[in-house]
Specification:
The structure is a single chain. By secondary structure, the chain is mainly alpha-helical. Helix content is about 60%, strand content about 10%. The chain has 18 helices and ten strands. The strands form five sheets. A two-stranded parallel sheet has the order 1-4. The longest helix is centred in the last third of the chain and has 30 residues, at about 310-340. It is globular. The structure holds NADPH dihydro-nicotinamide-adenine-dinucleotide phosphate (NDP). NADPH dihydro-nicotinamide-adenine-dinucleotide phosphate binds near residues 109, 271, 333, 427 and 430.
């Protein structure tokens, strides 16, 4: 396949100039900063006090604002010593495991300033040790009940939100005062936007990579622990775990384990390769992910659902089909990018691609390739389709009585559409005409024939 060569300096990635951001971007950042933590607390209140009814507290506000606000505040999550202590212990444990456990070393992508960082891949082992330790502590040593997370959910929610905010503030100060790679920083014209989106690309404290740690360890490891605690709570209440809770736990376990088994791949995703470390990733990793992605499990504690064997099998099959697309598409791209000169077999044939070229901030030229075969012949983001199908399967375990557990199934496609849009703007700036040639070769952005 013929390709275009492009030499283009990405203005968006330059650390020397301030990138202009428009008022809409600043207002959106401020809106998320203020609204997202409130929304997490609101979802908790809906789940815990209003039986999963999303609109009820808001509807009450519309009819009797002062009274409803008073009642809402009375049931809002409160800071507790236990919440802060458990969060601190979790955070510390994850940091120790990440720093001390052995693992293979891999190299990340070349940064805009030309750095190439090494990552120690011990996420799978850290996940295993974490869960083994928690199992022993709960079931062998009797240090706490397996329902601890469910019992302390409100206090933990407050602690995680405070921690997320403090970490984002610390990241902002570190980026100004003690940057890990000063030439890989990006400042915008707005301090609010910088705080939200981040300044440093790959901040580290010693050997601790802050991005991989907060998303890949503190956040993703918590997901399965929270789900298991909610399953334990269901068992404590009902004397059994429902099929819906089982299917949900299995599907989300597959999703979480995938990231740890293929951590090598994860260090080449947008999170690690392109996004900066600010509130979006820091608070997102420690507060949004463990509390919002586990809403279906929280819902199933309040509303146990018994799926028939046929329904359970159908939802499981849908989720696994989504996972198969997600895994296969991500593996194809990763295998292709690692193959010398892009020569490899994709879906049983020689890979086809558009050659591309770009220049990093240090003036060095780099060759790159954009895959156009396998899943990547159908769409420019086929991996997002599998992810969205899985998200739908998670929510379907909860039946159709309430919209609350469908939050993730609606939120994730919206996030991925926004992600595709900003990723393509960045790739266009990076690769120039080669990106246009790639777009012509693969016209569908996400869903073939639709968009
Ligand atoms: P990708 O892993 O698809 O990475 C996108 C990058 O890949 C681009 O920036 C570009 O980087 C490179 N690229 C783009 N097109 C091609 C091509 N044709 N051939 C080779 N390389 C290409 O995106 P994400 O990081 O967004 O997603 C990773 C996975 O994580 C997805 O499956 C997604 O669904 C999932 N995800 C899940 C989330 C959740 O909350 N559950 C959130 C976000 C993602 P370069 O500059 O190197 O060319």
């Amino acid at each position: 396949m013929t390709g275009h060569r492009c030499i283009m300096r990405s203005a968006a990635d330059s650390s020397r100039d301030r990138t202009g951001v428009n008022g809409w971007a600043v207002a959106s950042a401020a809106g998320v900063l203020l609204g997202a933590p409130l929304f997490v607390a609101y979802a908790w209140v809906c789940c815990r006090t209003f039986g999963g009814a999303l609109a009820e507290p808001l509807a009450a506000l519309a009819t009797d604002a002062p009274g409803a606000l008073h009642r809402l505040l009375a049931v809002a999550p409160r800071p507790t010593a236990a919440g802060f202590a458990i969060f601190a212990a979790w955070y510390l444990l994850q940091a120790i495991l990440m720093l001390l456990l052995p693992g293979r070393t891999t190299l990340g992508a070349v940064t805009p300033a030309g750095h190439r960082l090494a990552y120690r891949l011990n996420g799978a082992l850290a996940w295993l040790v974490t869960h083994a330790l928690l199992y022993l502590a709960a079931f062998r040593w009797g240090l706490f009940r397996p329902t601890l997370v469910y019992e302390q959910w409100g206090g933990l929610l407050v602690a995680a939100n405070v921690a997320g905010l403090v970490i984002a503030l610390a990241a902002w100060v570190k980026a100004h005062r003690w940057p890990t790679h000063a030439d890989d920083r990006r400042f915008s014209s707005s301090a609010v936007h910088d705080f939200f989106a981040g300044i440093e690309l790959n901040p580290r404290i010693g050997r601790l990579d802050l991005k991989l740690f907060h998303i890949g360890r503190v956040g993703m490891s918590a997901w399965t622990v929270v789900n298991l605690s909610f399953a334990a709570q269901q068992y404590a209440t009902l004397g059994r775990v429902t099929t819906a809770m089982l299917v949900l736990n299995v599907l989300q376990l597959v999703y979480v384990l995938d990231l740890f088994w293929r951590e090598d791949w994860y260090v080449r995703t947008i999170d690690i390769q392109h996004d900066r470390f600010g509130f979006y990733l820091a608070w997102g990793g420690v507060a949004w992910l463990p509390f919002m992605y586990t809403l279906p499990a929280a819902f199933l504690v309040a509303h146990p659902v018994d799926l028939s064997p046929a329904a359970a099998a159908a939802v499981l099959a849908l989720g696994l089909a989504g996972y198969a697309i997600f895994l296969s598409a991500n593996r194809q791209r990763d295998r292709f990018r690692r193959a010398p000169d892009g020569r490899c077999r994709i879906a049983g044939r020689d890979a086809t691609f558009v050659p591309a070229r770009y220049v990093s901030d240090d003036g060095q030229f780099h060759e790159s390739r954009l895959l156009t075969s396998g899943w990547w012949a159908l769409s420019r983001h086929p991996n997002y389709i599998g992810d969205a199908v899985m998200a739908l399967a998670f929510s379907l375990t909860c039946g159709f009585t309430h919209p609350l557990p469908y939050f993730y199934a609606v939120y994730l496609p919206a996030l991925l559409v926004h992600r595709a849009w900003r990723d393509e703007a960045r790739c266009r700036a990076k690769y120039g005409p080669a990106w246009d040639a790639y777009r012509s070769a693969v016209p569908a952005r996400i869903v073939p024939g639709v968009w």
